[in-house]
Amino acid sequence: MNILAIESSCDETAAAVVANGRTVLSSVIASQVETHKIYGGVVPEIASRMHAEAICGVTQGALDEAALKLEDLDAIAVTNSPGLIGALLVGVNFAKGLALSKGLPLVPVHHLRGHIAANYIAYPQLEPPFLCLVVSGGHSHIIQAESYTKFKILGQTRDDAAGEAFDKAARSMGIPYPGGVHLDELAELGKDTAFTLPRPKVEGSPLDFSFSGLKTAVVNLIHNTKQKGGELPVNDICASFRRAVAEILTEKTLLAAEQTGATTVVLAGGVSANRRLRELMEQRCAERGLKLYFPPLNLCGDNAAMIASQGYYELLAGNTAQMNLNAYASKAIDA
Ligand code: KG4
Ligand code: ZN
User: Residue 14: what are its φ and ψ, rounded to 5°?
Assistant: First the structure.
């Protein structure tokens, strides 16, 4: 079964064709990063406009790369939540047009479910149930994936998402957007014990995250160092900050594994590309005999292959939409 998926929730216009949820026939991504970089972050109006300009070419590119025609498709999947509303609407309306013109089923996909499904592409043996840490620019969740389409949130952030924390810390050191990626690279050159940063806890909710205190601590550290007139030890700050975030994420995920008796842990979302997080998770999961999966780097960030993969399982579960499908800026993964 060939599914064409469209992804336009943030600053990547992407289309992909995936066979039977697991085999990528094509994957095309048009990134807007260079444009948003000028503004230090994603400008929603610009993102929508650039999606509208790119979506036809990107979709045609995905069909060409797969050597398929619209007639060879079995369904159209599209990210319809969560994300920037204007950006999502471009993808949703385009997908509706394709589905209507060819009489194909239209399958709405939750973006975070898609991030989890990136692992199905990389690991053909991986099947739910498993415990999942989903860490992206807008979300930080510890989730029980009970089946391909049934999820239970065990913990989530009370304030900033992990990716957002990386991006804000990077920005306050003058590191260009997208900060998390560059911060990770600079951290490789620094000493992660150079600074002691807090590991904020959420009273009474040990599986919830709070990154705002950590972010404030690092911003204060930067300001104080600058005020003293010294040179900012950027690499050491990056390494210490990255270590703190990786430790918080790992510690809570392992606590959730212990509480639920999970034997398999899966990482997903843009932040799962983080080197320190991957290393620490590997180390801790090995110590406890837990199986660990994380996506290859090309599937960590936003792409449409992961949406097509999840779309396949949504279609099997009967989760299709009509032509009145809408987009939602926020929607829970378990809704
Ligand atoms: O999943 P994603 O591509 O988009 C959203 O759905 O939000 O995640 C983007 C986030 C950004 O905040 C970016 O800075 C962060 O993931 N990110 C990283 C790394 N690569 C991407 N954060 C830390 N280390 C990385 N290597
Ligand atoms: Zn994403």
Answer: -135, 150
